[in-house]
Amino acid sequence: MSELFDLNIEQVLEDWEIEHALREIIANALDEQTLTKTSPIEIYNTGTEWHIRDYGRGLRYRHFTQNENREKLFSPNLIGKFGVGLKDALAVFFRKGVKVEIDSRFAHITLRMANKTGFDVSTLHAVFSDPLDTQMKGTDFTFIGIDEEAVERAKALFLCFNKEAVLLEKNKYGEVYKNKRKGDSSIYINGVKVASEDNFLFSYNITNLSYKIKQALNRERSNVGRAAYSDTVKSILKSCISIKVLLPLMEDLQNVMKGKNCDESAWLDVAAYAAKTLNDADDVVFMTPSKRDSLSNQDKEILQESGKRLIMVTDKVYSKINSSVVTFDDVYKKHIEEYKYEYVEYNDLTLDERKVFDTKQYVIEFLKKYNYKYDANIRVSETIRPDYNAGEADGVWDSGENAIIIRRCVLSNIKRFLGVLIHEFAHYTSGEPDNCRAFENVLTYMLGKALFEANINKT
Predict the structure, then answer these.
(1) Are 116 and 67 in contact (CB under 8 A)?
(2) How far apart are CA 137 and CA 130, in angstroms?
(3) Which of 65, 157, 249, 459 is the 20 to 30 Å CA partner of 124?
């Protein structure tokens, strides 16, 4: 006893190959596994036949009538949403000469061409016969006329069969996967591949479908344009917190200047987010190429001694993040705050060094005469705190130490010593750093008065 059911397929998908039809059967089986929480589906070969088997509720005639499956529409993380996929697949199998048999506890189903009821038009029909096993669990699709290559191509369209997929991070928008090689990125939606990208840093599985994505998912599930999913990919990345994702993204930024970067690092909002988040998660310092090129050798040593990982970013990214991440200015400031001097006591100086050092009294008397501050401690150190972007200085006014500190080697030349000392007294008096108007004015007046004093004494 058998009954015919007209599949009412008006348009056969001419571009579909056997693997695309198999994809629909596998997708339905996986969805049924998810919905019923039953055993994993099986895809296997018995010699001349291939089988796709699930252990769910079993296929019945009404599954051929639905254009929209409400159960799937309101269940998250399912692959299919529309009931037409099964009928599309069966039409492709028939067109390709693949024999299909479907078994469940409700029916044994085959395919054949037959006239539409009341019309002299032949269409594809499902033939429903009595079930072979009324106690059978799930649904078993049997295929005769397909090869292993087609099955493997179909399985390659599913994330769950990708044994090489390495999950890096998962969040409410989707999942990020490591690429096997550059130029081999896949975009999945709920585990089904919908697009390929040849310049993405990662592969992505989108699990939170936006309206734009839902509109773009056509019957074919393939060649979904980037415009449909790029915003969601950005959302995935901007929700990541793992160094395994953020660090490669930041390292790829260094390729921007070479024009060899991947597309994700060119997204300014993504790059800025990754930089700020990585700043909180790892011991890093951010810098632009121009800033790096301007560093003195001593600055580079300070950076190296800090032990921080250097992350190069573009000027645009830097302008968005510099106030909220660690920069070289921060590294330098910390170095200064933690700097330890190697002080040399007066009695440990050589006789010649003492003679030069004692001339400080002439400078002090000069300062007193012209009512400048003169009571700073004056100390000698083997090494001295570096001067930002100017290498190691000869002297420094260190408010933390409450002292003017002179590098010991300066004591080898009296003129050099006196020049450095009056320079540092100008800092002490003005309270200002180098390269500012207030400091320059104080130093200029000091030098003018010193020269005037020298000429008076000479005459």
Answers:
(1) no
(2) 16
(3) 157
Q: Per-residue DSSP letters for 118-159?
A: TSS-EEEEEEEE--S-TT--SEEEEEES--HHHHHHHHTTBG
What gap in Å lies between CA 200 and CA 218, rounded to an integer? Answer: 23
Distance of CA 39 to CAs 43, 250, 291, Å?
13, 42, 59
- How many angstroms separate the CA atoms of 39 and 55, rounded? 6
Q: How far apart are CA 420 and CA 74, in angstroms?
A: 78
Residue for token pair 């252990």 = 55
3-state SS assignment for residue 187 = strand
56 DSSP assignment: S
Which CA distances in Å does 365 have to 8, 358, 361, 371, 457?
A: 108, 12, 6, 10, 14
**pTM attached to this predicted model:** 0.71
- Per residue in 233-271, pLDDT (tens digit) is 999 999 999 999 999 999 898 888 788 899 999 999 999
Helix orientation angle between 437-458 and 360-369, rounded to the nearest 10 degrees: 100
